[in-house]
Amino acid sequence: MSNTQHLTIGSPKPVFPDDGILKLYSMRFCPYAHRVHLVLDAKKIPYHAIYINLRDKPEWFSLVSSSTKVPALELVKEQGNPVLIESLIICDYLDEKYPEVPLYPKDLLKKAQEKILIERFGQFINAFYYLLLHDNPEQLVDTDHYAGLVVYEEELKRRCTKFFGGDSPGMLDYMMWPWCERFDSLKYTFEQKFELSPERFPTLIKWRDLMIQDHAVKCFYLDGQTHAKYMNSRRSGQADYNMLYNEAKRVKLG
Amino acid sequence: MSNTQHLTIGSPKPVFPDDGILKLYSMRFCPYAHRVHLVLDAKKIPYHAIYINLRDKPEWFSLVSSSTKVPALELVKEQGNPVLIESLIICDYLDEKYPEVPLYPKDLLKKAQEKILIERFGQFINAFYYLLLHDNPEQLVDTDHYAGLVVYEEELKRRCTKFFGGDSPGMLDYMMWPWCERFDSLKYTFEQKFELSPERFPTLIKWRDLMIQDHAVKCFYLDGQTHAKYMNSRRSGQADYNMLYNEAKRVKLG
């Protein structure tokens, strides 16, 4: 975890060998950046991760990516070191560019249907943030649908496969996962018991337990308590980007 | 224009011959649906257009598309008549499924960059709606950037091509066009003079004039005054979906 220091105002731009390896600008707790880590790890594409303090960004970051957003993927092998932004666009690019472990169905209709389900998951994402920012748990658990999560329960049950992608996770699994991983943190933040009901979500609960064992998910996994700790720092207005880095340092020194 | 009657509560579901032709559920003035019309027409894919009154939708529409949104594309040749939603997902599907007139660059990096520019155009779309709903022209023309339109001026100038797609319009051209066509309506709705300044936007002005001559654009084109008439009806809370249909009927009867 010692590599998760977030660069900030005054931090020099990190220098890497001229090794042609992709550079991913990220933030350790950003779920959108998490998506790109998952796809890179699922496809076993090597990359350098560079973590950015999003409150006080290093001066040079606006020269790397004019949007100054993360995730941003720098394609160091391409002329002019172009930078891609937007998690879904980056992930779709990686899937086409590195087709060895395909994450979408080959069938074009099924692929489009997968993209619709990814898009629709935005409803859950919005409800998730609304909850974190407004302390309104009703928004998320309204009518026991968990903001549309029931659609995914039904869909996976219908497919009768371990993952949405079949025997292994596909693009939909990975695009949903960052928020599903963080779902487990809510019980540490709110008094209300945030647990998926085993009666209502038996398929998604099995899916979650399988996802946690997936190689790519393991590579970037944090438990609910750790996510809660970061989220609480963010809710207090002082997002503690270097939480993991500082903890690792303390352990090392201790 | 007699085919632009919008089906509503009580309208029977239209019956088409079993001809395998795509069915596009649309609304004549919806810019997102407009995108799909453009791509279908650019690729010369035949389709049946079915216009939906979005305020009072026909009862059967929720059975066609559970989202009850337009655009919705029914793939009548596929088993179970699946329906795709979301303009960008539909357009990307059509581009892959009907590759004869490719609308994206072949190069995967350039394709991803085109998608980023399509995504980024959302800023302009948001400002456009903000203006229409809040009567706040400053939002759109702020700092003379026209809500990010200057990015597209610079980009097209840099490319030195007629269209973003090169010698003919590509996906970016068509995904931007519905709002660019409607831009010309603002001068009829607001007192402030909404014109692209020839000093600041010479490239986009040339582009607009070329786009208007494109076959696919012509197929679905409405002039600024007509768009303004519809928009005013929408702003008054009584969107006049059948405006064109009723006008055509009056002309016929007259």
From TrEMBL, chains A, B:
<dbReference type="InterPro" id="IPR040079">
    <property type="entry name" value="Glutathione_S-Trfase"/>
</dbReference>
<dbReference type="GO" id="GO:0045174">
    <property type="term" value="F:glutathione dehydrogenase (ascorbate) activity"/>
</dbReference>
<comment type="similarity">
    <text>Belongs to the GST superfamily. Omega family.</text>
</comment>
<dbReference type="InterPro" id="IPR036249">
    <property type="entry name" value="Thioredoxin-like_sf"/>
</dbReference>
<dbReference type="InterPro" id="IPR004045">
    <property type="entry name" value="Glutathione_S-Trfase_N"/>
</dbReference>
<feature type="domain" description="GST N-terminal">
    <location>
        <begin position="20"/>
        <end position="102"/>
    </location>
</feature>
<protein>
    <submittedName>
        <fullName>Glutathione S-transferase omega class</fullName>
    </submittedName>
</protein>
<dbReference type="GO" id="GO:0005737">
    <property type="term" value="C:cytoplasm"/>
</dbReference>
<dbReference type="InterPro" id="IPR010987">
    <property type="entry name" value="Glutathione-S-Trfase_C-like"/>
</dbReference>
<dbReference type="InterPro" id="IPR050983">
    <property type="entry name" value="GST_Omega/HSP26"/>
</dbReference>
<keyword id="KW-0560">Oxidoreductase</keyword>
<dbReference type="Pfam" id="PF13417">
    <property type="entry name" value="GST_N_3"/>
</dbReference>
<dbReference type="Pfam" id="PF13410">
    <property type="entry name" value="GST_C_2"/>
</dbReference>
<dbReference type="InterPro" id="IPR005442">
    <property type="entry name" value="GST_omega"/>
</dbReference>
<feature type="domain" description="GST C-terminal">
    <location>
        <begin position="107"/>
        <end position="243"/>
    </location>
</feature>
<dbReference type="InterPro" id="IPR036282">
    <property type="entry name" value="Glutathione-S-Trfase_C_sf"/>
</dbReference>
<keyword id="KW-0808">Transferase</keyword>
<dbReference type="GO" id="GO:0004364">
    <property type="term" value="F:glutathione transferase activity"/>
</dbReference>
